[in-house]
Amino acid sequence: MTVLAEHPTDLAARQLFWRRFRQHRLAVFSAALLAFIAAMALLAPVIESAMGLDATRVDLFNQYALPDATHWLGTDEAGRDVFLRLLYGGRISLLVGLVAAIAAAVMGTTIGLFAGYFGGRLDAFLMRTTDGVIALPVLPLLIVLAAVDLEKVGVPATVAESEVVSLYRIMFIIAIVGWTTVARLVRSATLSVRTREFVRAAEAMGARPWRIMARHILPNVVSPIIVATTLSVGGIILLESVLSFLGLGIQPPTPSWGNMLSNAQELITRAPQLAIYPGLMIFVTVIAFNFLGDGLQDALDPRASRR
Fold this sequence. Notes:
single chain, about 300 residues, mainly alpha, MetI-like fold, about 0% strand, globular
């Protein structure tokens, strides 16, 4: 069997990417930090079992306990372990951020490809729609959509009252307003790529538009998609935290960093650490995603200035 060797140009581009990315020390540190946070969140059940605790167990005789060997970050107003709740809350917050960002990127990429490749009236319609969504006040719109009673719009009561429906709804409403940046970036890149010789050659050979967009244009516009998606994750986590803080996001007993922060607002004078821990996790995660996005932008864009 003959093994095809990797194309030298692809190998050189990959090596250049890693070399440029490693020069961005904050991005490398942020990537390692995010990997650690994600790993700890994924291993939450294992850590819970190893500690011999139950993150959902209420112990009213052990409220506001200080950190010790059993409860590493103390307990909350219900006597639950704060460290374990942070881990489980991280699973929800990271899941919302990643899934909503990917969904928004898929929507934006599809719209941008269609607008940039076909042009004409379709381009004008899609871009005016994009401008209209951009003009909307995002946070008030999200608050209104999150406050809609699902039973009144035809959703069965058993579904509307389930614990996970708030999770899916938050991901959906953030995704439907978060695709605009990717759409504009992809359209701009598509307009540039579609005039190149290899695209013209594919058209002359009779390739269908779907194949041209998927095989020839999309691989050449993937860099801005990756950067925009990475940068949007932090903003989405922040939006989820704001909605949960206002009581319109992830609903208890499902923990998220946002609703943990909301539950702690009335206890800020008695137990300020209950607000500090989730607030610190939100801050660190959002900043890390922003630094990671900056590093990817510098590494993927050959015109970016070296830091």
